[in-house]
Amino acid sequence: MTTDVKGPDRLRGLAGMAIFAALLVLVLGRAWDVTAGQRGAAADARLAAFAFDRADLPAPPFDLVDLDGKPLRLADLRGQFVFVNFWATWCPPCREEMPGMVALGKELAAKYPGRFRMLAISVDEGPNPVHEFFSAPPYGGVGATGLTIALDREQAVAKDYYCKGRGECSELKFPETYIVDPAGRLVAYVVGPRDWTTPAAREFLERIIGS
């Protein structure tokens, strides 16, 4: 009579392979967690460098008229994330940040249809400088920007946001950007110009939209 020793050896081999596979999955899982954590830390670092301030208060209401002569009221924008940028054509940093801002606004409006609106509220004294500014490259006219543009000639709305966001009033500076959530609450603001083409700009807005 002969004894088959291949059966036990085969079982031991299969068991060893199973243990190895389990260990490999565990090691890869931990490596994935570390990599994901590193990506998250890198994103947090980019956002910290982007420098925005959180807020949580009712957004100041406004009742303006856009460049097409249509009413522009914050109350009518409920249900959307509203990006409110205060700027002027005579403000060099405003002019510099505008192309990237316009491009990002178009992308987010397309990605989040009906959920995102970008407003450019000018403190110019009239509409002509604004039309002239957007008629030049790279914009191709006010209508091609995808922005909703209005005038705040007396800077009253700009001052309201500036003071409410900080809890105190001082000399107005431009540009400044405020984010209003669908419930009409001011949730974040950005002091001064930004490069809106950077990954941090998109992360900043998409984190808020996704929150």
Q: Can you describe this structure?
A:
With 211 residues, the chain is α/β, with parallel strands linked by helices. The chain has helices at 6-50, 92-111, 127-135, 156-166, 199-210; strands at 53-58, 63-65, 71-73, 81-87, 116-122, 148-151, 176-180, 185-191.
Report the order of strands and helices: HEEEEHEHEHEEH
**Cα-atom Rg, whole angstroms?**
26 Å
What summary fits the major beta sheet?
6 strands, mixed
Shape: elongated
Helix share, percent? 40-55%
Q: CATH-wise, what's the superfamily of the largest domain?
A: Glutaredoxin
Structural class: alpha/beta
Structural domains: how many:
2
Strand ordering within the main sheet: 1-8-7-4-5-6
β-strand percent reads 15-25%
**Count of helical stretches:** 5
Which runs of at least 5 residues are low in confidence (pLDDT < 50)?
none
The CATH C-level class name of the largest domain:
Alpha Beta
**How many beta-strand segments?**
8
User: Taking all residues together, what is the mean pLDDT?
Assistant: 85
